[in-house]
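Amino Acid Chain and Its Fold in Token Form
===========================================
Purpose: to set a sequence beside its fold so the mapping can be learned.
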Amino acid sequence: ILPNCFYFFNLKRINIITIKKIAELANVSAGTVDRIIHKRGQVAQETVDKVNAIIEEFGYTRNILASNLALNKKFHFAVFLPKSETLEYWKSQAEGIEKAALEFSKFGIVLDYFFYDYNLASFKESAQKVLAFDCDGLLFAPIFYEDSVQFLKEYEKKKIPIVMIDSNIAEENEHAYVGQDAFQSGYLAGRLISFAVKNERQVLIFKITREIESTSVYQQRIKGFYSYFEDHDELTNFKFSEFTLKDSGIDQLNLEMFSGVNSVFVPNSRAYIVAEFLEKNNIKGVRIIGFDLLKENIEYLNKGVIDFLINQRPEDQGYMGINYLYKKLVLQEETERTHYIPLEIILKENYFPAKR
């Protein structure tokens, strides 16, 4: 008898009870129980109280996945990203998204992609298509800051979940974010620049930009970098200068701009451009810190030209962005709105290519 009683207790504790069983105990139809659980239609308050009392006593958890599968329900997620053909970083983001799409496809997840070129006109054109598209959730990489803010204001009228990756441009609202803490990553770069340095250092902040990178991420990294030294006013031996290079042409570099420079901070994924120039001109002893495990960056990291790369796991960002929408819409779970990706400090000595 005891084993049976124990088993029945466990059944209650893990909430195994069906709508049919609740209906039998309440002496009502299964349809009535379903209406009470989903708060549809008119049911006498006495019946509502009776059914709710049984649910409270025995427990009932709706199997949302089973319901969706039974109804063959589809969930369409719009994915609004920069094109990834020429940039390895965004290719990694897309790979993470595809991994999640494959994993969750059996639960009715369908992705609809909207890509844009690296110019404002293409972004605006794609934004209009996304606004006109009917879907259940949006995964968005807000690259052009001002126009992304305007797009979000318009898109919010749809009243559907939005998750941003790479850049968080709307911390004050209810949208979700998966990615780095950009300010903290710049702050970390400042610490790495200052590490084990006693003598005077000339630090060059090398802004290799295109129009697309006037983003909050880019600016927050630089702000965080300077903040590290503001918070450590004992580091008076550091002097700073900035140089802006439009696009990524190495032919625009010259020896004079590196005169007296001991350290270089590149607040995006193009540290390899500086490294290539220094190697070609046999300039040694310059500490370089940049971002992301692009193959070109890894090449110069392994050669010892780049000292540190701060990695933000772009593939994980893409995967977790879709995972957020899956939990929010399919499982109907409450999910943390902000998920910061851990910042990894990659050196020549600890880099190992990820297994695929």
Remarks:
- The radius of gyration is 27 Å.
